[in-house]
## 1
Amino acid sequence: NEGDKTKLDYQLTLDLAGKDARGGDGASPGNATPRLDHSVTVALERELLDYANRGAVPEAAENQTRSDEQSSVVAEYRASVGRGGFAASARFDRNELFDDASTYRLTGSVGLGGSARLHASVGTGIANPGFFDLFGFFPGSFVGNPALRPERSTSFDVGLEKSFAEGRVRLDATYFRSDLEDEIVPSFDEDTLLSSVRNLSGRSERRGVELSLAATPTRRWQVAASYTYTDAEQPDGAAELRRPRHVASLDNAFSFADGRARLNVGIDHSGAQLDSELVFATPQDRVALPGFTLVGLGADWRIDRRWRVYGRIDNLLDEEYEEWFSYRGRGRAFVAGFAMELAP
């Protein structure tokens, strides 16, 4: 199979002159009125997708060519006043295969005094099925479902951020919830022994808590850590597939050589999760995938003002793991390169 994506996009941002709440320029001495900074962004997108699937012979049943086109318009307004901020955005998508769709997002934050900040957001989203979901890729095993509907979600979150130790430590706790309609899940026909996908009727719910920490223990050492607990259920109350309850990460960044060199050590943990088995010879249709922990190592060295070299090792310990049933995760991988800045 072969796929091509061609995307054209244009974005324009207008930064409006900072004004204080009374309409002044906020620059006069003794003017304690918070400064208002705001901007407007407009974006246009055009995306063309082409997909071709070919079997072993010209007459193969899986031979097919498909395409899709989508045009989008996005608008966003952002404003900040003192320690508070607000943003509102809207998006309109016109797709060749699906109905037109409109989505939005609202975010805001406000200082509570001291070093605390309250933040919240609410929004909607949409995810279209892919070519494999719609049209399949192997008639003898997996068939597509051209009647699929896009997934739609409504989500919100609210959290509190607090700084300590003169800003060197920042903690954040956020509660989130997302309601998903027309969730796309695997399906299996016991009569034909064929796999496919379908939309669930009803509403799937995802809710949980995310905790994050950002700290600077020393001038050359930065730490970032996060933990997320997610409770995800399908409309019938069963646990959602591929949604681990526990996800955590820890990243350590060290700088040396007068800031020209940087070393990163990262640890990512994903807890146990469920996935579809889709093996007709066994009585169960779900399988539990064990949790796993991956360690990564990266380095960056700036040679001079324009040149730098970098490298990293993913899955340093060569951990064997599965994010999807029967698909082994990526093993140890080495990446190295250089970058040159062209700007004067």
## 2
Amino acid sequence: MSYQPLAGKTVAFLIANGFEETEMTESQRALLNAGAQVRTISPEPGLVNGWLGKGWGHFFPIDRQIATVLGADYDMLVLPGGERSVAKLALNAHTRRIVSHFLDAGKPIAAIDDGIALLGIAPKLNGRTLAAPEALRPALAEAGANLAEETMMTDGPILTACGLDELDAFVAEMLRLFGEGSAVQNAA
């Protein structure tokens, strides 16, 4: 029997059409292997289409539509990148509500590439240090974030990484962070 440090924990993946498929699937696979229950949340009905390389990727089923979700129902949040996905999610008021809940509650959040921009839609980044791709840095600084020179940063319960080059390290750090967050929540 293998050790599953995230058994009993539910992780929400917030995605829309055009999400970066590799960032989602690699993270999802690692979380499932660690025993977590993984749920996809989206404004899309039924299926959501990933972006893989230079074109559309695979379709993935949605577990819940974003309008019906409460952040309190999830222990951890993952925000994969993908310009199209992030642009659509950023315009959705429910995204702000969910991200705000996680920031207010101090629950673990892992955001990579364009997904980091979703942290900035909730005006709660003052004093937080984030890694971010160059294109996102001005908006995140305006939202109050301190910007790290590193391409990956953990600040309390928030993990940010600049992109696919950091994916393996991002997944490993996400498991560590989520495992620690799980231990803290279990002790409370």
